[in-house]
Structure formats: structure tokens, C-alpha cells
Amino acid sequence: MNLHRRLLMLLLMTNPLLVAGGLRADGPPSLVGEAREITVVGRNPTPGFMVHLDADRADRTYLGGEKMTFTVRSERAGHLYLISWSAEGKATCLFPNQFQQDNRIEVGKGVMVPSVEAKFDLEVGPPYGAEVVKAIVTPTPLKQLPLDELVKAPATPLEEGRAKTIFVKQRAEEKPESWAEHHIVVYTADPSKPRPMPQPRRVGLFIGLCKYRCGRVLPLSAPGNDARGLCEALALDAAVVLVDEKATLAEIERVFREEIVAKTRPGDVVFIYWSGHGGRSSSTDKEEKDGYEEYLVPFDGDTDDSRRTMLGDNAFGRWMQDLDGRRIVVILDACYSAGQHAGAKGAKSVPTVAEGHLFSRVLRRVSGQKDVNQKDVAFLASSTATQISMERRDGKHSVMTHYLIEFIKQSKSPLSLDEVFAYLKVKVPAYVESNYRGSTQMPVLIDLTTKPLFLNK
């Protein structure tokens, strides 16, 4: 029985049940067909704030007959809409609805769908598989979804193509910084079969940049070896390595937001590694109190057009939100200063960056300090933001990455982040002080994981 037919029957019931379903839940998900197309179209590339959507099961996997609940939080007040797409690409507006007619959302205050007071449930039913669910928060009510139309039923089916049109018009009519969205995938399974219990997978994206298209960015020697070497040492289930001309901003985003997302599901461990230059540019973002936005430099990054061509901290935070539910380890072997010292990894003609700015801003967007994003994340940096990150004298590896690879390879037991950091904070400063007189380099670890996370198997 499909979703739309079931909804018609629900209207006659006192305590109705909304049936949800989708793609197969056995194995890494890969969104296909119309559901994926709509999800991509509905993205806001440059929102001015964050919205976070979550389900009531950490693995987001449900059996037929079980009930599911969604919670949405926003960094900015506005009007909330919650839309789901089945595996067949059929869209349904879940919120606002007959029992939750006020769709205003307050800053940081969770909106639960269905609420405790609502006289309906979201119950899982066929078709089983995966369902895309998207929350969107807008400054004013959507003209394309009149409230009086949505409050007539527990959920409102949307005719084919309408949801896609809504997002297209939203992007055309509203400034991107005025609205925000976030989507997740939930997995459903036949209750007559054992509950899917996939083993957590370890997947990574490794980026190494020695060469740059922009002549104002100095070339490096080690990052390509860094990316390939660490990928090999970690021995992951799946990995993508992007080096030099393959590491354009567009390709990094595609792999990060599509390929890595498709290879993983909630509970998996994702490693994001970057070796190369870092820097900063002036920012119009009022939250950037010092007037600058920190960035990482892709192959096609241009210091004269940094806002458009660099991977900034705002974009990095949005991309990480696509990995919501995964356990994430971000490893950055780059500096954020103007250091022109031989072997330094700071972009040419970039002013000095104050202590910890890139981390504080990315953390604000992805660590849950405003309770709108995932918390199971760790950051390992090669140096503080006021220090230069160095390559080794032989040019084969960057200093921190060399010792990271060395420690992983020589260990015969699983290594926790704390153990790795304890090793690095001794080895890295000692090498730099001995080989680069007058320079210091101290790695930084910010660990927000909910349970111990091991770098090796």
C-alpha cells in the first residue's frame, strides 16, 4: 500500500498513522532517481545560519510498525517546513499539519514532529528502504505552501514536482543568507526479517596539495605523499585521495557531499584529511568578530578571489553537516599564518591569523555549541593558528603527518586519539625546534567524540 493511498485512509481515523518508506537499508545507501535530484536542488549553498534535523534513533534505522519522531532546531527564528520523499520520489509535507498548525520556530528551541500533544504518529510501513527528510526554515511563510492547505490533514501529499519547484523558487526569490535547510536519510526494513545490523565502516577523504594554479600560492613538496601515506596507514574500508589538480574546490565538494555521504551511514567513522596551505580573507559575516574568514586553499584557489574560490570555514561547517550521524575525525596539516619560511604551509601574502580562529568557528558550526549540529566529531591540527606548520627537511612528509603515520604503523594495538596526540605533542615540537631555529609548532586536539575513537583497526 503506497503512502498516498494510506494517507487518504488516515483522514478517517481518530489517531492516524503516517506510513514512511524508501530505499533498501542493507549496505551503504546511495540516493538515486528523483529523491536524490530533489535533495540536491533543495540545497542552499550559502545560508546565513544553521538548521539541524535529527531522528529519534541514532542509527536512523526502523522496522515496519515502529514509530519515528523528528526534531528540528534552528540558529535563527523563522517558519519551519518538514518534507519527506519516499524511495519512489513522492513528496509529503509532514509539518505544519492538522495538529501542529503554528509552524514558527524559535532560536535553539526544538520542534518535535509529531509533538507529544499531536494526535497522530509516524509509523513505518512499506515500501521499505530509505527516505529523504528535509527541514527548511524561512524568514516568512512560503507562498508555495499556503498554511491553510497544510493544516487540513496529519500530512499533505505534494503533487509530482511541486516540492522541487518550491525550492527552486525559494532560491530565486530569497537571499541565500535568509533561509537554511538540512536533510537526513532514514532507513526502514521489513519487520519479518532480522533488524539490519551493519558493521560500522571506516571511510576517508584525503586531500594533498603541492601544486596550485594560482602563481601567488607557493608550491609545497610533502602534501601528496602525506595524503597517500596516511590513507595507506589507516587501512580504511573505502577512501578517496585527491592530489594537486584533482583537488579543485568543485571536486572536493562533490566527493565530500556526495561520494563520501553515499558510502557511509550513521555510526560509520569518517576521516577528513587535508595537507596544504591555509589562510584567511576579509568577511562580511557579522559573526566573524575580527572581520576575517579562515580558509583552506584548493588547487584552483585564487588569493584575489578567496571568497569564491577557497574552502572557507562557513562552507566547511555546512559540508560536515551532510555527514550528520557519522563519527568524524578532521585532520588538518596546514597553517593559517603568513609564514614564508622554507617548508612553511601558509598561503603567500596572507596576514597572520589570531589564535584558534578556524577551529573556534568551525566548531561553532559543527560541534553543537548552539545545539544545532552533530557532536561526535574530533579535530586534530598540526599547529595552533598562530604557528607555522612545517614540512620535514627531506620534503617527503609534513612534520605532524610523518609522526602520525609512523605511530600508526609501529603500533600493534588500537590507538585512541588521546594516545596519538600524546605522541605527536612530544615528537612534533622537538623536530621543529631542532630543524627550524626560532620556530615552534604544537599540534592541537579538540575531541568531542561521545566514546573512544580509534585511528587504526
Structural topology:
Layout (H helix, E strand, L loop, with lengths): L2 H8 L6 E4 L12 H9 L9 E5 L5 E3 L3 E2 L1 E5 L3 E8 L5 E5 L8 E2 L5 E3 L7 E4 L5 E9 L8 H4 L5 E3 L3 H12 L6 E10 L12 E7 L14 H12 L3 E6 L5 H15 L5 E7 L2 E5 L9 E5 L9 H4 L1 E2 H9 L5 E7 L23 H10 L10 E5 L17 H12 L6 H19 L8 E4 L10
Parallel strand pairs: 1-10, 3-13, 14-15, 14-16, 16-20, 20-21
Antiparallel strand pairs: 2-5, 4-10, 5-9, 6-7, 6-8, 6-11, 7-12, 11-13, 17-18, 18-19, 21-22
Unreliable segments of 5+ consecutive residues:
1-37, 337-344, 346-361, 363-373
CATH topology of the largest domain: Rossmann fold
Which term fits the overall shape?
globular
Please identify, by name, the CATH architecture of the largest domain. 3-Layer(aba) Sandwich
Beta-strand proportion: 15-25%
* Average predicted local confidence, pLDDT: 80
How many separate domains?
2
Helix share, percent: 10-25%
Largest sheet: 7 strands, mixed
- Whole-angstrom Rg: 23 Å
Plain-language structure description:
- The protein is an alpha/beta fold and 457 residues long.
- It folds into two domains: 3-189, Immunoglobulin-like (Sandwich); 202-447, Rossmann fold.
- Helices cover 25% and strands 24% of the residues.
- It is built from eleven helices and 22 strands.
- The strands form five sheets. Strands 3, 6, 7, 8, 11, 12 and 13 form a seven-stranded mixed β-sheet that branches. A six-stranded mixed β-sheet has the order 15-14-16-20-21-22, with helices on both faces. It has a three-stranded mixed β-sheet with strand order 1-10-4.
- Helix 9 links the parallel strand 20 and strand 21 (377-381).
- Helix 5 runs parallel beside helix 10 (399-410), helix 8 packs parallel to helix 9 (357-366) and helix 10 (399-410) crosses helix 11.
- The longest helix is centred in the C-terminal third of the chain and has 19 residues, at 417-435.
- The radius of gyration is 23 Å and the shape is globular.
- The protein starts with a helix and ends in a 10-residue tail after the last strand.
- Residues 1-37, 337-344, 346-361 and 363-373 have low confidence and may be disordered.
